[in-house]
What we know:
Blueprint: H1 2-16, E1 17-28, E2 31-42, E3 46-50, H2 57-64, E4 72-77, E5 80-81, H3 86-92, E6 93-96, H4 108-118, H5 124-134, H6 150-161, E7 168-172, H7 180-195, E8 199-204, H8 207-213, E9 216-221, E10 224-229, H9 231-236, H10 252-260, H11 274-279
Parallel strand pairs: 3-8, 3-9, 6-7, 7-8
Antiparallel strand pairs: 1-2, 1-4, 4-5, 9-10
The structure holds adenosine-5'-triphosphate and magnesium ion.
Amino acid sequence: xxxQAEILMAANQAQRTAIHAQGLEKxxxxxxxxxxxxxxxxxxxxxxxxxxxxxxxxxxVKILSTLLKADVGTASVDGFDVATQAAEVRESxxxxxxxxxxxxxxxxxxxxxxxxxxxxxxxxxxIANDLLAQFQLIDAAERKVxxxxxxxxxRLDIAMSLIGNPQVIFLDEPTTGLDPQAxxxxxxxxxxxxxxxxxxxxxxxxLDEAEHLADRIAILHExxxxxxxxxxxxxxxLPPAKVEYVERxxxxxxxxxxxxxxxxxxxxxxxxxxxxxxxxxxxxxHK
Length: 287
Ligand SMILES: Nc1ncnc2c1ncn2[C@@H]1O[C@H](COP(=O)(O)OP(=O)(O)OP(=O)(O)O)[C@@H](O)[C@H]1O
Ligand SMILES: [Mg+2]
């Protein structure tokens, strides 16, 4: 009886978990990038993987989407092992890479129809219409993508990745390079995905993006997840704000810098961390 209950509990847990990563390690030749990455993502939630340039975010996404093999560790997506059940994992996911993968010469509608055909959808034009409406692209549907703004391209990219109803969607830096308005549009699209039950793992270097979008936030630093929690939980990692003139809650940026440490100030050992930290500035002032 007890064993049965344990098996049931484990099965329930697996059902609630869309992504499970345990002890992931990866080196590129002599460069260790991941040194033991562990996290779980609940179904239907938005999980943000936050880290500086070069922290290894894309490497994690590539391992989870079966494009790259981990040296050590295990991971499963939608209950399938990424190493031994790669085909099943690919059926369950979609990946929107760091750079938009839309075809410039085609119109928005043609891009969607093309992907629907490739995925053997039985009514490509209906699915294209539905997605154009969902992502507010109806007015631009018949225009070549080369005339689209960055935000429209990103939205189309995300729309394309939804064809086939993936259970889990990976968005690698979905808003890098977008202006604030376009970022808001993409955020809205991502929120709607999660509201429909899709699990979203997104990577970002923008602290405010994680703060606005994510149910849980994990900070990847020096090859490990050094913090993982809801925004409220992460805020508790810092002592309560000191009252001087005005009480101020710590921002996610304060938390990040406190956990990661401000290497630049205490001498010798922080040199190689500096570039990365300089990259962790809010979008408006970035690039
Ligand atoms: N194919 C590769 N060969 C060698 N080194 C690589 C390769 N891919 C990534 N790296 C290195 O691994 C580290 C992590 O790269 P990764 O792309 O995962 O970082 P990231 O967190 O996605 O960074 P960014 O925010 O710039 O996209 C970097 O130092 C990068 O130079
Ligand atoms: Mg990357």
